[in-house]
Amino acid sequence: MPHTPPTWLRAIADPRVSRVMHRIVTSRPPAPVVHGAIRAFSRVYGVDLHEAAQPVSDFDTFQAFFTRKLKPGMRAVETDATRVPSPADGTLSAFGPLGEGTLVQAKGVEYSLDALLGDSSDADAYRHGSYAVVYLAPYNYHRVHCAWQGSLTAWRYLPGALYPVNSMGIKHVPGLFARNERIIGHFDTEFGKAALIMVGATFVGHMSVAFADIKSNNGQPASGRVTPSAPVPFERGDEFGVFEMGSTVVLVFERPDLEPALPLGSPIRMGQPALRVLGDG
After folding, report:
1. Which DSSP category does 226 fall into?
2. How would you label 164-202 residue by residue, b for 16+ Cβ within 10 Å and e otherwise?
3. How far apart are CA 34 and CA 60, in angstroms?
């Protein structure tokens, strides 16, 4: 794997490229153009438009479709205390022990937990725990939900590049998830301390969260660690944030006794069991 990404890949990772895409997908062309594009995209990629809370006729931009909400009941959230529900629709792409504080990006390539979280003191709680990665393709439902019951105790916004997070990016960009723009939430949960990290990607130039006014890819500096005046309560399945287009969620746990609840590479839906406690079937 090269140490430096190719020039063409560095070019599309420039946050300004994603800002241009944001202007395009939030523009308001005539309704037949928007609705035709949504229906064509959905046919090609197998998007079930019947799940959306709104009919296609209500979407006035392509971005409104990408960030669509679902009808109530479209996703059942796992309630078993020995199971960790997926925070998003996508693919369960990676899982592993953190060992000495490293995560595996690809065979033979690691990146550090300190770099991912942006601060070594933030990483200390998870250094010997475990992690999981859910990859969201552009056609997936793009809202991210809480994977546990607990309280949000701190968060951090880290601006960065916007490399693609698909197989091409993973092949060519060492330390990919620690280089891209990130929003990180730290929690005290039913599984102990855990973190949920939203990782931006090419064209995913804007991420938002339910608990703070974070304006990603907007030229703002890193936020530093932000601690609320009181912990913010979350239940399993509560909305955490929204991606524009596809991207990646990384879950980090202090506890090491977790394992995938289905084979890596499997498609998964928000709320479906992604991980399970070892020894609990």
Report:
1. B
2. bbbeebbbbbbbbbbbbbbbbbbbebebebbbbbbbbbb
3. 7
Contact 185, 81 (CB under 8 A): no
Q: Would you call 189 helix, strand, or coil by DSSP?
A: strand
For the question of residue 247 being annotated catalytic, the response is: yes
- Report which DSSP code applies to 26: T
How far lies 233's CA from each of 12, 146, 183, 247, in Å?
38, 10, 18, 25
14 is catalytic: no
How far apart, in whole angstroms, are the C-alpha atoms of residue 157 and residue 150? 20
Q: For the chain, how far is it from start to end, CA to CA, in angstroms?
A: 37
Least confident of 17-21, 55-59, 227-231, 240-244: 17-21
Residue 89 is a catalytic residue? yes
Secondary structure class of 216 (helix, strand, coil): coil
List, in order, residues 6 or more apart from 3 with CB less than 8 Å away: 174
Q: Which of residues 19 and 221 earns the better pLDDT score?
A: 221
Q: Which of 86, 93, 216, 247 is catalytic?
A: 247
Residue 229 pLDDT greater than 90, yes or no: yes
Return d(Cα 214, Cα 236) in angstroms, integer. 22
Per-residue CA distances from 164 to 37, 180, 232, 247, 250 (Å):
23, 9, 31, 8, 15
Tell me the helix, strand and coil percentages in the chain, rounded to 5.
Answer: 25, 30, 45
Threshold 0.85, pTM exceeds: yes
Find the catalytic residue in 145, 172, 186, 206: 145
CB count within 10 Å of CB 212 equals 16
Indicate which residue of 22, 89, 93, 206 is catalytic.
Answer: 89
